[in-house]
Amino acid sequence: MNFLGRLKKDFKGVRRIWTQYWSMYGGCSALFSSTYFYVALVLTVVNFGAWFHSGWWDIVIASVPTILGFTLAGLAVFLGMDSGFSRFLVDSEEGKISPFMALVSAFAHFIITQAVAVIFALTVKSAYFDLDGLPELYYQVVYVLNRIVWFIGYFIYMYSMVQVFSAVFAIFRATSWFEMYASSEKNKQK
């Protein structure tokens, strides 16, 4: 297979997995009906002083990678501690997403929003520079566009931070499922 053929196949695979994730997460309807989305929006507006000036990206770049590492480790531990529990979670009605995939997609969403926040912050930081000697209109437009982009970037950061609550409650749900599983296993042994 030639280079372009492999590249095309790879792009199709990436598109397929992103589509699967987005579908299992719930798509745009899940995103825009999420309490965490609107909490992040409010927090972004409240934290106006943090993102309105250059340099906000340093907070994101310094804090998110650590949280991202813990998130990935937590997901790995959950996936690695199988004692038949994942088979219990996989059971679902036909056409419905299993509790196991709902949990994994919630973690995937949390991880993806953190990664997007870091990538966005790194990109904005690298794109921020001053040019002297241009018309005043250029500086006025750049000033406004910077604030719009900075708002979006800080919102993504805040959204990734409030997703901590979503991940915690996904774990909480999983522990209640595990308790049901453990009780049913205990009852089988009697």
Give the topology, please.
Layout: H1 3-25, H2 27-32, H3 35-46, H4 48-51, H5 57-80, H6 85-90, H7 99-127, H8 136-189
Helix pairs in contact: 1-7, 3-8, 5-7, 7-8
List keywords for this structure.
83% helix; 190 residues; elongated; mainly alpha
Structural overview:
This protein has 190 residues and is an all-alpha fold. The chain has one domain. Helix content is 83%, strand content 0%. It contains 8 helices and no strands. The protein has helices spanning 3-25, 27-32, 35-46, 48-51, 57-80, 85-90, 99-127, 136-189. The termini are far apart. The mean pLDDT is 88.
Summarize the structure in short.
This protein has 190 residues and is an all-alpha fold. Helix content is 83%, strand content 0%.
Percent helix range: over 70%
Q: Ranges with pLDDT <50 over ≥5 residues?
A: none
Overall tally of structural domains: 1
Distance between the termini: 58 Å
Alpha-beta content class: mainly alpha
Radius of gyration: 21 Å
Name the beta content range: under 5%
Helices, by number, come to: 8
Largest sheet features: none
Mean pLDDT level:
88
Output the helix-strand order: HHHHHHHH
Coarse morphology: elongated
Number of strands: 0
